[in-house]
């Protein structure tokens, strides 16, 4: 009967004749006995199969003995319990059909050490389409999916939030930040110079497209630099039927509209950032879990983050205990995660960092070393709250007690991992939002629909974005975020 290796390794097929379709992972010979380790991807583990010269035709034994790694086969055999075999079970091959015999698999015979940051890492990245067949990527990608699944179970099934998919192509940039240096405008925009820059940038970015039209488009912007911000900032832009569109950096703005229509909502969607930064925590394409909740204030927002992170981490740590152990992850730190998470006000964080000798002052954004320092303070995640409004995006609600800071928080994962969530209470007052859009030099025409949300039934509301790959990286205790994506996208990698 047809079955899977996963089921055989669970022990339900002992003494039975089975048929398996799969791939050769390893092959080794002991004279008249030949062992093939065969995988069918139902589990990361292969099953040991044994072919005996005296039980098969000479021709078939020869074919089996010569099969290369990754050859695809279908075979029939008898399942036996054998505690010398990895996993405790073995299949004795009675017949085998070759689907494709492979001779020259580039990743054959690589040692396990290849994963430990040696030069072979790049070789594996260049062969990611094949490397994902190995047990380690297989396991990490499975856990990444579990992070998404657990988030869905918590938000959709337990809290009854509705899942909605926001668009990826937008004209409204979500994470637009102010052109500032320490809270003051960085430079006066020189419209003439900016226009020249824009023309150059547009030509660079759209070399094959209707340049005359784009030139005119830029000239027609006159004093309005908002579209230039589009071209200059770290967004992927595209000529879009006579306009410039961007790939979204976050589904938040659209989720806010959905929240007014559907109640508490969340999205599980990709975000795109054209940042050049090459760090072990940055991808140009990553996924976020983004809830948006009506009538929720900053406090409610932090509470939801604590509950969601706790649920996801606990669920995954429990369900994937074996897999995490396989990755070398000590799961004890994960088992300790539970509400409440410590909160540090941004101003206190700056004090702490200064005392520890970091060159940082109030108004600066926190970089990776700063986040790491805070992240190592606690066994559990830590919120850094109330950043200066000036270094955060336009939509964040100012703290009524001190409007220079925003009602926002970034959640730092422990063990040195740093930011895994960014969130805030959103501005719900029409005048204030209009003022901010002006201050951030955004084009009110593009944001008209978003402004409308403050005209028709506006209520205080909050939300956040949890980075799927960042959370997976922490849960699996990885050094490099690229391991968490099927095909990681960075400024240097678009293929494979
Ligand atoms: O802090 P960010 O930029 O916040 C937003 O995009 C909000 N609009 C989300 C919201 O409120 N709905 O990004 C949110 C999270 C970060 O905390 C981080 O986990 C992840 O997304 N993230 C990245 N992950 C990988 N590579 C990058 N370049 C990332 N940038 C952000
Ligand atoms: Mg952030």
Description:
There is one protein chain. The chain is an alpha+beta fold and about 500 residues long. Helix content is about 35%, strand content about 25%. The protein has 3 domains: about 5-100, Nucleic acid-binding proteins (OB fold (Dihydrolipoamide Acetyltransferase, E2P)), CATH 2.40.50; about 135-165 and about 265-485, 2-Layer Sandwich (BirA Bifunctional Protein, domain 2); about 180-245, no CATH class. The chain has an 8-stranded mixed beta sheet with strand order 6-12-13-20-19-18-15-14, sandwiched between helices. It has a 5-stranded mixed barrel with strand order 1-2-3-5-4. The protein has a 3-stranded antiparallel beta sheet with strand order 7-11-10, covered by helices on one side. A hairpin with a 7-residue loop joins strand 2 and strand 3. Helix 5 (about 135-160) packs across helix 17 (about 470-475) and helix 6 packs antiparallel against helix 7. It is elongated. About 35% of the residues are buried. Mean pLDDT is about 90; it is low at about 180-190 and about 220-230. Bound molecules: 4-amino-1,4-dioxobutan-2-aminium adenosine-5'-monophosphate and magnesium ion.
Low-confidence stretches: 180-189, 222-231
CATH superfamily of the largest domain: Bira Bifunctional Protein, Domain 2
- SS summary, helix count: 17
Largest sheet report: 8 strands, mixed
| End-to-end separation | 37 Å
| Class computed from helices, strands and strand pairing | alpha+beta
Second-tier CATH architecture of the largest domain: 2-Layer Sandwich
The number of E-state strands comes to 20
Task: State the helical fraction.
Answer: 25-40%
Q: Mean pLDDT, rounded to whole units?
A: 89
CATH class label of the largest domain: Alpha Beta
Shape field: elongated
CATH topology of the largest domain: BirA Bifunctional Protein, domain 2
* Count of discrete domains: 3
What binds here, in terms of ligands, is:
4-amino-1,4-dioxobutan-2-aminium adenosine-5'-monophosphate, magnesium ion
Strand order across the largest sheet: 6-12-13-20-19-18-15-14
Q: How big a fraction of the residues is strand?
A: 15-25%
Radius of gyration: 27 Å
